[in-house]
Prior knowledge:
This protein is mainly α. Helix content is 50%, strand content 4%. It is rod-shaped.
Amino acid sequence: MRRNWNPALWVGFAFVLIGILSYPLFFARFPITRDFPWANLLIVALALQLLAWGLARAFRRPDLYRGKIFGSILGAMAVLVVGFFLVEIFHGTKEISASHGAPKIGEIAPDFTLPDSQGHQVTLSAVLNSPFVPNGSASAAAGTASAQTAGTVLIFYRGYW
Length: 161
């Protein structure tokens, strides 16, 4: 009796590779899949399920399906690769070192100049020395010309630099 190929093993291992390689090549570009790799985890879960199904089929019916030895090797390699991926994603990314030159919380920021939302250059010292004008009204500034800005909130976020 001729034994059939067990495509679930091959497709499952291919999906493991696709699920892991698609994260840095594609899914890391989008914040919704970069911050938590849910799409990759779904692909990898499907792949592991296919591998398990193919292995079960190979061991239950070795007279019909191939893959007891090679399927076991593919399954072990897939589990190791997925384990490495999970460690790198959930543990390795948390071990990113802090910037040594960045100001600490509560520390006075050095003076700098950056463009605002309209493209005009704004200096931190100019903002701190300017009078506080609520809602941008010029008439309110005329009555309280001596009032100065008490502080400025700087918001930093991780993004594409």
